[in-house]
Structure formats: structure tokens, C-alpha cells
Specification:
Layout: H1 3-13, H2 20-29, H3 32-47, E1 50-54, E2 56-59, H4 88-97, E3 105-108, H5 118-131, E4 136-139, H6 142-151, H7 156-166, E5 168-170, H8 181-187, H9 194-206, E6 211-217, H10 223-240, E7 243-250, H11 266-279, E8 285-286, H12 290-293, H13 295-301, E9 308-311, H14 334-343, E10 347-350
Parallel strand pairs: 1-9, 1-10, 2-3, 3-4, 4-5, 6-7, 7-8
Bound molecules: ligand V47.
Length: about 350
């Protein structure tokens, strides 16, 4: 190992923060085993032998979307036979079908629908919460939120307050994509800016609403772009501290305008996870979203710094199956999650949205 690498590894082990240039050096020069070992050690010091999971399902109310992001396989234009829009009754019926099944989180994300006002979303949240009062509603990406709040003529703060009052208790991490302005203009030119994404999370954190963060990697960006993205998140977290989890999202190439970019290797996925764990020293949880990796890679991810697998899902999300993920009908039983954790030498621990542990139950 060269001297530079040795000194960076020493810093990481001493829980000292590394700079962007050091992250780049780690990426370019560290062998996989070293990245993995550093991330594993960091994971152990944060969450010990635990791997978190939750009992959740998703509601994807629509795949109509104002924006046409080039990496997206999910969106359909109005009039397309593959476009869908759930009615409020269908949404309530879906939530009702999960009554009595131990669900602790409902994740609601869809396209940015052109026609709905804020009241529509407030009613949606109230109705889901009304049917499943014990579950946390984690809803809408920062992009959807910015749009619905702006359309209502409200400040971010006021809009988020109203949504929280209706029952939105946490915000998922989607819509971050890649923060670099030039790249964003190439892959999702119409979508809200990086500054807008960060402003929504900043406002949410200041209101005490916890959120997640993501990156979409493995398309046309460079490693320096990824590190810049991580750096902006780390700086935001220093200011407001409200990110619970970071989720590196691997670009899946089927059925979208960026298909030619292909997909990065599993080895690169593991390097990305490890780098995220090492760089984001102020975000406690790194999620290996099994729906996007597939179950086999998710198990591997647990040796590279991840401490969360996300949830049972119950075949309720299409975003990744439409983009080419192996699992066409993603669902995982609690037993399966436990055996993945066990195989990785770790202990599966059920959590709620806020990472409170839930005592073992069948
Ligand atoms: O923002 C879209 C990504 C995200 C593709 O917060 C794609 O707990 C890969 O954010 N290949 C939405 N990714 C999903 C998301 C998420 C998922 C699970 C848990 C949480 C959480 C958040 O999906 C979008 C976009 O970055 N995405 N298309 C694609 N072809």
C-alpha cells in the first residue's frame, strides 16, 4: 500500500473526516478489500452487528409526470396505454388491504402530476393515515414537494407544515439524482435543481421532519461528480442533521433514454457503498435497497458498509422492475431478510421509519 493510502486509511480509522481529494484517491487506488474493510469497521462502530429492515409497502399513485428525465423507465405520457392514475378510492382500498399486517411505514412516491393541487395530496395523506394510523407516512420526493408547494403559492416552510399536519412524518430520498448542475441539465433538464432539492430537505430538517438522501450513479457521471454529491450532502447534514439514511441508487438501464450508458459492475456498486459509508461520517445509516440491487447483491452489500436493507415491499413498486431489476415482483418475507442478515454474519433488527428498534415479532 502506498504512503498516501496508508495515511488516508489511518484517518478513516481514527474517525477523522476525509477531504474530496482523499476520497478520490481512495476510489482510484484502494483495493476493494481495503475499501470494504474500512467501511465495515465504520459500520460496526455505528450499528454493531445489526442490519435494519422494516415492514413497508409503497403506493405509486401515478406514473404520469411533468418531467421527462432521461434515466427514468417509469414515466408515461398522458394518453399512453401504460399510464396509470390511482383514484383516491383505490389508494384507500390499497391501504385498507394492509390493515392488521404489522406495517410500520407507507412509502408514497409517484410522478409529478400536472393537475393536482396541494389539497389533493393533503387528502391522500389523511386518508392513508386514517386507515393505517399506526403506520408512518413517508411521502413524496423533494421534487414532488417543491412542485406542489410552489403551485399552492406557499413557502416551503408553510407547505411542509401543512403536509406534516395532514400526517406526512418523513420524506424519502428520491429526486436527488446527481447534484452537478451541468450533468443535471443533461440527464434531467426539466427537473428541479440541486439547490431546490437541498432547500426542501433543509426546510424539513428545520421543522424536525427526518428525511433520506440518494444518489443516482453509474450513468454518465464521473467519480468526481459522485464525490461532489456526497460532499454537498455531508455539508447539509452538518447544518441540519436530519438525514437518517443515505441510499446509493445504481442506474438500471432498461427502457429509458440513457440505456446506452449500460450498467456498472457489482464490484463498482460495492466500492460506491463503501465510499458512501466512509465519506458520509455524519449520516448514520447506509441503505442497500435490495429492490434495486437484487437480493444476492444486497447480501454482499452488508459486508461493504450498509446497515439497512429497506423492507418487505410486497410487490408494490414498479420503478425498478420497469428499469430492468431482476426481481419483477419485488417482495421479501421477514424470514428471508433474517436469513440474508445471518448469512452476512449480522443480526436482522426490525425498525420503524425513525430507526427505533421494534422487539422481535413473528
Ligand atoms: O429519484 C429512477 C431513481 C428514485 C431509475 O428514501 C432510478 O427510503 C435507477 O428514491 N435506475 C426513486 N434508479 C426511488 C427512491 C427510494 C427508493 C427506496 C427507498 C427510498 C427511501 C428512496 O429512483 C429516483 C431516481 O433516482 N431512479 N429511474 C433507473 N432507471
Amino acid at each position: 500500500m502506498n504512503e498516501r493510502l496508508e495515511s488516508i486509511a489511518r484517518k478513516v480509522r481514527a474517525a477523522e473526516r476525509i477531504a474530496p481529494a482523499e476520497a478520490l484517491a481512495l476510489w482510484e487506488e484502494a483495493p476493494l478489500w481495503l475499501l470494504g474493510r474500512l467501511a465495515w469497521e465504520r459500520k460496526l462502530s455505528v450499528s454493531g452487528d445489526r442490519v435494519f429492515y422494516n415492514r413497508n409497502f409503497h403506493i405509486e399513485p401515478t406514473n404520469l409526470c411533468l418531467f421527462n428525465c432521461r434515466f427514468c423507465s417509469y414515466r408515461r405520457p398522458k394518453g399512453s396505454p401504460e399510464a396509470w392514475e390511482m383514484t383516491p378510492d383505490e389508494i384507500v382500498a390499497m391501504a385498507r388491504s394492509y390493515r392488521g399486517r404489522g406495517i410500520t411505514e407507507v412509502h408514497i412516491v409517484g410522478g409529478v402530476h400536472p393537475d393536482h393541487g396541494l389539497d389533493y395530496y393533503l387528502d391522500m395523506i389523511r386518508s392513508v393515515k386514517g386507515v393505517l394510523p399506526e403506520a408512518t407516512v413517508k411521502a413524496f420526493t423533494a421534487i414532488e414537494l417543491a412542485y406542489m408547494i410552489r403551485r399552492a403559492g406557499l413557502s416551503l416552510d408553510e407547505g411542509l407544515r401543512q403536509l406534516r399536519e395532514a400526517g406526512m412524518e418523513a420524506i424519502p430520498g428520491g429526486g436527488a439524482e446527481i447534484f452537478d448542475e451541468e450533468l443535471r441539465a443533461r440527464i434531467c433538464p426539466e427537473k428541479g435543481t440541486a439547490a431546490e432539492w437541498l432547500a426542501v430537505h433543509d426546510a424539513a430538517h428545520r421543522l424536525g421532519i427526518p428525511t433520506n438522501a440518494t444518489i443516482l450513479y453509474g450513468h454518465v457521471e464521473t467519480v468526481a461528480h459522485r464525490i461532489d454529491h456526497l460532499d454537498r450532502l455531508r455539508r447539509q447534514q452538518d447544518l441540519t442533521g436530519g438525514f437518517d439514511a443515505f441510499i446509493p441508487l445504481k442506474f438500471r438501464s432498461a427502457g429509458n433514454a440513457l440505456s446506452d450508458a449500460g450498467e456498472v459492475s457489482v464490484t463498482e456498486d460495492l466500492r460506491m457503498l463503501a465510499l458512501s459509508r466512509i465519506y458520509l461520517d455524519n449520516i448514520p445509516h447506509i441503505k442497500a435497497y435490495w429492490v434495486m440491487y437484487g437480493k444476492a447483491t444486497a447480501e454482499l452489500a452488508l459486508a461493504f458498509g450498509a446497515d439497512d436493507l429497506d423492507g418487505t415491499i410486497d410487490d408494490t413498486t414498479r420503478i425498478y422492475s420497469m428499469a430492468g431489476a431482476e426481481d419483477r415482483r419485488p417482495r421479501m418475507s421477514v424470514d428471508e431478510i433474517r436469513s440474508i442478515a445471518r448469512a452476512a454474519g449480522l443480526r436482522a433488527v426490525e425498525r420503524d421509519t425513525f430507526y427505533h428498534e421494534i422487539p422481535t415479532r413473528p
